[in-house]
Structures are given as C-alpha cells and as structure tokens.
Specification:
This protein has about 425 residues and is mainly beta. The chain is built from one helix and 29 strands. Strands 22, 23, 24, 25 and 26 form a five-stranded antiparallel sheet that branches. Strands 1-29-28-27 form a four-stranded antiparallel sheet, with no helix packed on it. Strands 2-3-4-5 form a four-stranded antiparallel sheet, with no helix packed on it.
C-alpha cells in the first residue's frame, strides 16, 4: 500500500513539474504598444561570414526556448546552422554531431513537421541535391533523411505550408548546374510543388514555368477561394507573371499589371489579415535616367491589381528581404524590409493607406546587404523579436573595402516604451 502511495505521489510531482515547466515556457500576453523598441541581442551570433538563403525562428528541442535556424551557407558548415540562447541571453551554435553524416550543399531550409509527431523537422533544398527532409528526434537531433525528391535543382527560394497530410513545399529555382563554369547558365526550374506521400519521396507537381529566375517566394490565398496561391520574385527584367493561382488540377500563372514596367522584382511577402491577403513586393527599375528601388503594397480587387508605394529610394541597391508580423501587438500586420545597404526598416500597419515608417535605426555591418528576415518571440515575453541575416562581397571591383566582415546574423528583442535607436553597428 505504501509503495503504491509513493508511486502515485511521484506521478503527481512529475505532473506538477510538467505543468510548471509549461507555464514558465508559455509566452506572457502583452497589451498593444504605442511604439516599437528594439534592443540588440547579438551576443554569440556570428559577426562575420556570408549568410544567405534565409533565416527562421522555431522551437526545435522541446525546451520552450526558440532557436535561430539558418540555411546551409557557402564556405560554412555542410548542415543548417542552429543557434540556441542560454539563460544568460548568449547564443551558441548547436554541434554538427546532431546531423547525419551526409554533406549538404548550400541552400534554403524551413522548419516544418514532416511526420506528424509534433516535432519540427527541417525541410532543406541543397544545391543540385533536390528536396530533403531532416527528421527531428524531438531533442534537437537530425539523424535520418525522411524525404528525398527525385528532382535535382538549385533552389532560389523555398516556402513550406503545413497541410492536412504533412508539409507542402514550394520551390522556385534553377535546373541542375553543369560541372564546369564555362557551361551555359542552367535552365529555369520554375515553380514546383511537393506534396507528402507516405513511405517515399514527395510527389512533384508542376506549378509554373515562365522562365522564372528569382530568390523569393511566398504562399497565401490571394483570391480568397480557400486554396494557397504562389507569389514569386524574378531576376527577369519586366516579368509580371508572378502570381500563380491554384486551380483544381493545376496552377494558372497571371500577370500583376500594377507592377512598374521594366522592373526586377527582388522580394515578395504576403500574409492573411481577416478576409484579405496583404501582398508586398520590392522592385528595382531604371526609368527617366535614374534608378529607383521601391516597396509596393499590392491589392487584388475584382480580378485586377492596384499598387500603393510604401517606400522608395533613389538607387539600385534594392530591397532583398520582406516579412510581415505584428511588432506592436495591435493585431494589424507590420512589414519589415532589409535593403542592399543593410538598412532594416519597419512599416507599421502596412495594409493601412496611412502606413508610416517607424523611426527605428537598425542595420547590419558596414557595407553588407540584408538577405533574410524573421520575426518570432525569442525571449518568451509575448512580443515579436527580429532576426536579420546580412552578406556581401568583402571587396569591390577595384579592391576597395565593401563588406569587410562578409556578413553577420543579428537579433533584436522587442520591448515596450518609447521608440529608441536600436542600431548595433
């Protein structure tokens, strides 16, 4: 009897500990703020190196503390780079021993639950290796490859949504690259959609092939019909067929005629807000004897598109990263951008015609351009925090210093109170 009582008491203590851990780990709801404050939180993050192909914030190991997830990078680790934040607020990279022995080439990565076990796996698109999934054992170790597509390509961008049967991956990229540098450029791979298939490789579905070469892709229900549509950027000058509507058996590509003529679209983002899809695109164009980089908010009504300029600069640096999120807790999506000079800008209530830039000064290392952005709650205080990746050539064409560090990853924590300067240069 005493033994049974001791066992029951032990189980009760275990349950109470789990409840307490959950309560500590759960973010605290916060009221909306009249302003946005960003505080640097870079301790332990890399201050040099070339950081391309995307960044994400996700809790990967059941400890209630989110990790920063970065893609496989050129010249770096042959695996995605993960950073965990300790109790002192310092970041540390997770060891490479947590990954399988197979070497991965550079390419984007997105966290998603591939096998439905409640743990986030990593969907990876390494260059010329197709689409892979690194399965998470629940404790931050990726020892097996659960997906392996038959296609081979070099992904310019990767987006993943969580469907009823598992993650659905959307890939924008180029075809296989030749072994020699003297070979012609690879063909456009266009957009492909990969859906889960039990016990084998994901099934590939043709989506769009309009000669697209781009480095950004976004997924949301643009036409509000209940199906996910695809938006893409492009390196092809003047290409406007950048929205791909999901039909019953295929995708239908269509032009966004509100885009400026002769422009390169460098970045795209979208989010659902009520019954409306908010779409932002960044473009670079040369007209009237000058270059212009701009961000446009696009609205689809009655089958047509209208554009509203959110921000513009008189240069060709371009905006290369866009992301939506609620930084001030008011329920309305804000937009964050990063440009070719490494400047990070926040636009409050971007879907509102009166949206304005927040007076916040944050940026990357000198001369390095912004390549990726992510919003999430890093410190579990209920506020959105910001992570940005930067990269650039160390020298210019004449040997002059351009981005001496090669790049960096930087993080800022969202705080209440008056807006202050949050630069960590």
């Amino acid at each position: 009897m005493k033994r049974h009582a001791a066992i029951l008491l032990g189980l009760l203590v275990m349950v109470l500990c789990l409840v307490a851990a959950w309560a500590i780990g759960a973010p605290t709801p916060r009221p909306p703020s009249e302003s946005i404050t960003l505080v640097p939180a870079d301790d332990g993050l890399p201050s040099e190196g070339s950081w391309h192909h995307g960044v994400a914030i996700a809790n990967l190991d059941r400890d209630a503390r989110p990790e920063i997830v970065h893609a496989v990078t050129p010249g770096g680790s042959p695996y995605p780079t993960l950073f965990s934040r300790d109790a002192r607020g310092a970041w540390r990279p997770l060891p490479a021993a947590h990954f399988p022995a197979e070497t991965l080439a550079t390419g984007p990565v997105v966290p998603a639950d591939r096998d439905g076990d409640g743990d986030l796996d990593l969907i990876v698109a390494p260059r010329d290796q197709g689409l892979l999934a690194l399965d998470n054992d629940g404790w931050g170790r990726w020892t097996t490859i659960g997906w392996r597509s038959a296609d081979r390509f070099s992904a310019g961008a990767l987006a993943v949504t969580q469907g009823a049967d598992g993650p659905v991956a959307y890939v924008l990229g180029d075809g296989p690259r030749a072994k020699t540098t003297l070979a012609p450029a690879p063909p456009s791979f266009g957009v492909r959609v990969y859906r889960p298939r039990e016990g084998g490789e994901p099934s590939a579905e043709f989506a769009a092939d309009t000669g697209l070469f781009g480095e950004a892709i976004a997924v949301c229900d643009v036409d509000q019909d209940g199906d996910d549509d695809v938006l893409t950027a492009t390196r092809s000058r003047g290409e406007r067929r950048l929205v791909h509507y999901a039909m019953d058996t295929h995708f239908r590509s269509a032009a966004i005629d509100a885009l400026p003529e002769g422009a390169y679209v460098t970045a795209v983002a979208c989010t659902q807000h009520g019954e409306r899809a908010l779409v932002a695109m960044a473009s670079v164009r040369f007209a009237y004897e000058r270059w212009t980089s701009e961000i446009l908010m696009l609205d689809r009504q009655d089958g047509g598109w209208t554009a509203r300029r959110l921000h513009a600069t008189p240069d060709r640096l371009g905006f290369h990263a866009l992301t939506f999120g609620d930084l001030d807790g008011d329920g309305a999506p804000d937009l964050v951008s990063a440009d070719g000079a490494g400047r990070v800008t926040i636009y409050r209530e971007a879907g509102n015609p009166t949206a304005k830039r927040a007076p916040i000064d944050v940026a990357g290392p000198t001369g390095c351009g912004g390549t990726a952005l992510a919003l999430g709650d890093l410190d579990r205080d209920g506020r959105a925090d910001l992570v940005a990746a930067f990269a650039g050539p160390r020298e210019g064409p004449l040997g002059e210093p351009r981005c001496p560090s090669g790049g960096a990853i930087r993080a800022w924590l969202g705080r209440d109170g008056a807006t202050t300067q949050g630069s960590s240069q």
